Structures are given as structure tokens and as C-alpha cells.
Amino acid sequence: MGDYAKTIEYSEKSLKNAREIKNRRNESLALNNLGITYYCLGDYAKAIAYDKQSLMIAREIGDRLEEGIALGNIGNVYYSLGHYHQAIDYHEQCLAIAREIGDRIGEETAIGNLGNVYYSLGDYQQAIDYHQQCLEIAQQITHRSGIGHALNNLGNSYYSFQEYKRAVNFYEQSLSIAQEIGDRSGEGEALCNLGNVYYSLGHYLQAIDYHEQCLTIAQHIGNRLGEAKALANLGRNFIKIRHYPKALETLEVSLKIYITIGSRFDEAVTLKYLAELYFQIGNHTLAIESCDRALSIATELGIPLAKECQESKEKLLREQT
């Protein structure tokens, strides 16, 4: 439901009680819940600290289910930090445990997470294969939330292939499920992705409407990552309609959030948007500086964005001369 403050309150009470009565399994569970919550809030340092404590306890007591969950959570943190090969390693360990113990939701989640990593690495066909498997499992076990997330992720993959009509169909199905079950975070993601499609189609005002709805939800539930994404997407749409002061405002706030929470991939993307903005307003020095920063991060992460940044930098240098 996106009420992270209440989640933390209950999880901390649960953790305290578990430690008082020396219930190690409940201690691991509470730590896992805290890790997930801080991950959703974008506090990756706290998230991974709780997840690793949970993993250690789960292994000590031989709780394979909690071990798998903790491994998956750690994989998600590494994914958000741009450490993709580490993320794959953790998600594959999680998947192996889920299959070993017959945890179908765990299997579905691990496969979906692997799809997301391959998507970020630019291997869209591999991502589709994983998300299709994920969707099939979610449908078999009637896991509505899982179906919604799989549809959303399939939409992302087809969006990358520029199959916009197909992407919109997946996003709208995902949005409908999220609204039906009260998944505010999932609703925000679907709205954000619909905005991205309309941006690519050149319907900037329609895209802005979707991203503003997404921003409202993210701010309401305290989702810092979602807030930053909505602001960055609004910024690039404002560039297209030549509303440059508003574009600069939203992009700078977005960049600050990404740096604070340590989301390196998104930091690089936002810097690339800022480079485009500075170029449009005639500040080539800041444009090249932003592009260089984006290129440095993308190269470090080993992601396809590095090639785009290099091409943008070369174009900026040509324009400057």
C-alpha cells in the first residue's frame, strides 16, 4: 500500500520482540522487511545492511525460504546501484533456492528480477524471455501483483524495441491490476511508463500528465526513487516544449535525489538530459561537463548508455567548433 512509515514501525516492533524472546526466524523476517522498506525508500545503505543481517541469520538456522528472500533483496540493491553482474549472481542463487524448495512466488520474483537486470544491460530479448516466464508462473498461481509487475516489465522490453502499441497494451493491463488491488507503487510505475511511450510518440503534454500523476503518487507514499524518476521524465518533456526553467528545476531536484540514494544508472541518465538542456539554452560548457559525467558513470557501469553519451559528446564538440 506504500505506507512505508507504518511498515518500519511494525517491523521494528517485530524485530525487538523477536530478539527479546530469541526467535531467530522472526528476527530474520523482520530484518528482511526492513531491508525491503528502506530499498523502496531509496536508502540502499540501510537496505543492504538489514538484508545481510537477515541472510546471515537465515543461513545460521537453515531457513532456506528466508535465505532466498534475503539473496533476492540484496540482488535488487546491487541492481539499483548499477552493479549488474553482482545482481545476477544473487538473483541466480535466489532462483536456485526457490526451485529447490518449491517456492513458486520466489521463483517468479527471481526470474522477473533477472529480466530487469538483462534489460538494463541492453539484452532486451533475454529480458522478454525472463518476463514471459515470470508472467506464466504468476498466472498459474493467480498472483495478481506478480502478473501486474510482469506485464509492466514486458511493456518496458517491447518499448525498447519501439513496439509502442504493444508496450501501451501491457502498461494499461498492469495499471488496471495495480489500481484494482491497491498497489500504489505499481500504479505509479505503470503511469510513468505510459508517459515514456507518449514522450517517444511526441505527445509531450499527454506524457506530462502521466508523469505528474506518477509524481503525486510517489510523493504521497514516500517513494524517493519514484519521485526522482517522475521529475527526470517531466524535465525531458519540458525540454521538448521549450519550458527550459521548469526543465532545469525538475532535473536538478531529480539529480540531487539520485545522488543521495546512490542510484548511479539513473544519475547518468539525468545528467544526459541536463546535457541536452544546457545545449538547447546555449551553454555548451555545462552541456559537455554534464555529458562527461554521464559518460564516466555509464562506462563504469558497462551499460549501453555509454555509447549514447559518447555520441552526444562528439556532437556537442562539433557544434562548439
Question: How is this structure best described in words?
Answer:
This protein has 321 residues and is an all-alpha fold. It has 16 helices and no strands. The protein has helices spanning 4-20, 24-40, 44-61, 64-80, 84-101, 104-120, 124-140, 144-160, 164-181, 184-200, 204-221, 224-240, 244-261, 264-280, 284-301, 305-320. The protein is globular. The mean pLDDT is 93.
Key terms:
mainly alpha
Topology, number of strands: 0
Main sheet properties: none
Termini Cα gap: 53 Å
Structural class: mainly alpha
Q: What's the helical proportion of residues?
A: over 70%
The helix count comes to: 16
What oligomeric state do the depicted chains represent? single chain
Describe the global form. Answer: globular
Give me the Rg, rounded. Answer: 20 Å
**N-to-C order of helices and strands:** HHHHHHHHHHHHHHHH
Please report which band the strand proportion falls in: under 5%, 5-15%, 15-25%, 25-35%, 35-45% or over 45%: under 5%
